[in-house]
Automatic annotation (TrEMBL):
<keyword id="KW-0808">Transferase</keyword>
<feature type="domain" description="Aminotransferase class I/classII large">
    <location>
        <begin position="31"/>
        <end position="392"/>
    </location>
</feature>
<dbReference type="InterPro" id="IPR015422">
    <property type="entry name" value="PyrdxlP-dep_Trfase_small"/>
</dbReference>
<dbReference type="InterPro" id="IPR004838">
    <property type="entry name" value="NHTrfase_class1_PyrdxlP-BS"/>
</dbReference>
<keyword id="KW-0663">Pyridoxal phosphate</keyword>
<dbReference type="InterPro" id="IPR015424">
    <property type="entry name" value="PyrdxlP-dep_Trfase"/>
</dbReference>
<dbReference type="GO" id="GO:0006520">
    <property type="term" value="P:amino acid metabolic process"/>
</dbReference>
<keyword id="KW-0032">Aminotransferase</keyword>
<protein>
    <recommendedName>
        <fullName>Aminotransferase</fullName>
        <ecNumber>2.6.1.-</ecNumber>
    </recommendedName>
</protein>
<dbReference type="InterPro" id="IPR004839">
    <property type="entry name" value="Aminotransferase_I/II_large"/>
</dbReference>
<dbReference type="GO" id="GO:0030170">
    <property type="term" value="F:pyridoxal phosphate binding"/>
</dbReference>
<dbReference type="Pfam" id="PF00155">
    <property type="entry name" value="Aminotran_1_2"/>
</dbReference>
<comment type="similarity">
    <text>Belongs to the class-I pyridoxal-phosphate-dependent aminotransferase family.</text>
</comment>
<dbReference type="InterPro" id="IPR050596">
    <property type="entry name" value="AspAT/PAT-like"/>
</dbReference>
<comment type="subunit">
    <text>Homodimer.</text>
</comment>
<dbReference type="GO" id="GO:0004069">
    <property type="term" value="F:L-aspartate:2-oxoglutarate aminotransferase activity"/>
</dbReference>
<dbReference type="InterPro" id="IPR015421">
    <property type="entry name" value="PyrdxlP-dep_Trfase_major"/>
</dbReference>
Amino acid sequence: MSFLSQTLARVKPSPTIAMTGRAQQLAAEGKDIITLSAGEPDFDTPEHIRDAAKAAIDAGHTRYTAVDGMPALKRAICDKFARENGLDYSPAQVSVGTGGKQILYNALMATLNPGDDVIIPAPYWVSYPDMVLLAGGTPVIVPAGMEAGYRITPEQLEAAITPRTKWLILNSPSNPSGAGYGADHMRALTDVLMRHPHVWVLSDDIYEHLVFDDFRFVTPAQIEPGLKDRTLTMNGVSKSYAMTGWRIGYGAGPEVLIRAMAKLQSQSTSNPSSIGQYAALAALNGPQDYIETSRAIFQRRRDLVVAALNDCPGISCPVPQGAFYVYPSIHALIGKTSAGGTVIKDDEAFATALLDETGVAVVFGAAFGLSPHFRVSYATSEAVLADACARIKAFCEEMR
């Protein structure tokens, strides 16, 4: 009899965390490493948010709170959805978790049964399929290649839906591609969903505020109010306010789902950190000028990275609409050999050789379900990005 659960055998460790760990190990050995694999802003949390957390500690707000979020924070989340997305929720329709990942996990664990399908467009965030598998469901991957702007079409969505489909997971702007569904693209998908009332929508909006140029963010329930009663709209403070370590995410949806998620959370983590919740309250209710400041910086970094990677032989890098990632193709490099003697048989070989030979850590595309690509996070300084891109260019130029 195996000691470990058979369920655990269904999933794999996060490839992004694994690559970051490998880079950290090499750096600890004294190697000159540039890590472009981690998906978190490199800025400090805004001062007024840090001050609110310190004040909460000094005021003794260090006790348990309600299992899925204190009332004041739920009210602030409702106000945020009304103010920014035109969505009307009550506090009873809101759940606060230990990061956006827990909100997604709770929703899937609370709803999936063996035989249930979850449609996931690829490229996808690495955790989606594994969370579905842990919950006993079946991921149904729908590829959306570079030629389609990394967006699935309504025809693809229609073809993927069956009587077994329970959820569609939609992430816009996307990790890893930065692709976003504008109003027209989103409406085309919601029109399909309205014809299939048994399909629920899990909208991962975590990169909502990191959008560029003339792209305008929309969320499914905003575009099609008829979907609101079967949509969980997830967001959080980690990306918008540089609060990844504070671990506060939230979601809003029908009460029946929110109650089920709270029941699950009550038997796992219980409430998120009380201090993190007070910090999130300050983030949502306080001044929002930080968002535009960071967005402008990320746009400059995006432009630098896209131009530099498109100057690398064999790499094709489209311009993303948001988030802080690019997802270039290395199709033209497959089959070549690096200066260090590695045959680039796939994107994992590319990423491994790039790290070993140049010290630049990226994440290979197969981790996100679409090859041959790799993901670069440009959540670091322009000087570091320029250095990394120069190393990538030299790596490509030396291939034979």
